[in-house]
User: Fold this.
Amino acid sequence: MVEHTDLPPEAAELIQRQYDIDRADAGPKAPVLGFRYRGVQIESRWAVLSELDTMRRIIDAMPELLARRLEMIWCDSNAGACYTVTVRPGLWVPDLRWAIADAVMEAGGGHNGIMVEADGGNGCHIDPDWGEDG
Assistant:
């Protein structure tokens, strides 16, 4: 159940204004939040064209047989370059973790974190990586 908190109108207006600024600053928008590409649903929280394009490139960068195991890739426009990847039920293999991480690096040059969701307790979190060895 979601808790509901009443805000003073001034606070609600400020929050809405910040949301509108953040959404506008995210870049040009697509007419849809997402679509299927090569059998994988790709979605962007704010329908940001560049995010949708990056997710298409992620799928293209993956080995075909591993890309077919994916159900969905979602980009959190609010966090920027932060992805959730959902694996089709029963299709997790350990190599997916590395294929996803490598494809995101190739397609986008880095990320602020990837959450991989898979059944059987096989999901994982991939720490942010912008290719900086440190």
Remarks:
- DSSP finds four helices and six strands in the chain.
- The longest helix spans residues 9-25.
- The chain has a mean pLDDT of 89.
